[in-house]
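Hello,

Our lab assistant flagged a job as stuck in the queue for most of the afternoon. It eventually completed. Since we weren't sure the result was trustworthy after the delay, we are filing this so someone can double-check. Below is the sequence as submitted and the structure that was eventually returned. Let us know if re-running is recommended.
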Amino acid sequence: MRYIILSDTHGNKKGVEKLLQTVEHDGVIFAGDGESDFSNVNGNITMVKGNCDFFSKLPQSVVTNINGTKVLITHGNMYGVKSGLGSLIAYAESEEVQLVIYGHNHKQSLEKINGITYLNPGTFKKSSTLKSSYAIIDFKDNNFFINMTEF
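-- returned structure --
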């Protein structure tokens, strides 16, 4: 199963729609801040609330199982990810997940800590200081393979 991983779209609705039309996928995971950018998106989508998703009824975090992989999805603001991953690591370990998807700091990153993979797809909204980015995860047979894209 192939998933497009996005976070922090911040009003880039047209970009989201174009990406989802052009990249083959079975599902979408959105780590918050731009919930309204998905108002025309149908299908298999898992979303969490970001700190800029005012009045959202989405959950702050979700733990789910995708093709044998236990995944934590959160925006990251509740865990202070702009200052480091310490709180997020503690929560991920307590949930015994294999993969954490988060956003909030707009910096694309991929790292493995204590056997858990931490993926931040970065922001999907170009700015003067940051490139736009996203990730693709292929889930297969209790494993996953991540490809990062920046443009």
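-- support follow-up --
The delay was a queue issue, not a problem with the job. The result is valid. The two ends are 24 Å apart (CA to CA). The longest strand covers residues 133-140.
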